[in-house]
Description:
Layout: H1 3-11, E1 34-44, E2 47-57, E3 62-66, H2 73-80, E4 88-93, E5 96-97, H3 106-111, E6 113-117, H4 128-137, H5 143-156, H6 172-184, E7 190-194, H7 202-217, E8 221-225, H8 229-234, E9 238-243, E10 246-250, H9 253-261
Parallel strand pairs: 3-8, 3-9, 6-7, 7-8
Antiparallel strand pairs: 1-2, 1-4, 4-5, 9-10
Helix pairs in contact: 4-5, 4-6, 5-6, 6-7
Amino acid sequence: MSQMDDDENMSKPFRPLLRAGTRYSRDAADRPILMFEDVYKSYRPGVPVLRGTNLIIERGEFVFITGPSGSGKSTLLRLLYRADMVDQGRILFLGRDIARLRDDSVPFLRRNIGVVFQDFKLVTSWSVFENVAITLEVLGLPSRLIRSRVGEALERVGLTGRGGDPAGVLSGGEQQRVAVARAIVGEPALVLADEPTGNLDPQLALDILGLFEEINDAGTTVLFATHDRSLLDIRARRLIVLDEGKAMDVPTGIALHDDDEDDDDELPSGLPL
């Protein structure tokens, strides 16, 4: 893409119609959902969090992101919904450079991206319904449609009939399910999960992983950041390992990569313990 094309794109409003499943804009049909082009990010001089990262994420993929604490997992996700900005390079979402979007286009970017955090980020004094509905209320959708969408989202995460309960009385696993419902209620094209099982016990962590897999099966692209090796072992999914500013792409996932290495006693170089 030329500089002239880039400048022209930046001047246009960003209103993609991409959604999970079959509802997506014609322009986005043949594009990767995400492209990282030589991305650098640093918070301290000489200590890059991301150093020359190049990745392509196709629409409909489920990708694990892992690495030691401080390796840049959260930073990579924050760059995608423009909570942070790249220092060098580009991240393209549906062909548009995220960093060069006009300020009035950033809300449209975020409407296409659902985010789930480790600490849930719920308003505990609000009801389950209110915590999920807020995503649609800020869009100005009619009340009837909001009720319908929230009901569907709660059903998808296994919380049918719990809409009136205060979020603060739910268990940790249930609160994370509310957070997932809030992330998917707007039918985003992309869901980012930032250590979503970090505060849960192993069985609940598996349940939440299964929930994200169901979301992915319905057509939503999922980036799932975790340092939990047990989750990475469960499915042979594509894996991106971040360490010392570099990104290693393991398309076959840990389990098959270990088999290829023919060594069950050692992890591949750079993979987390």
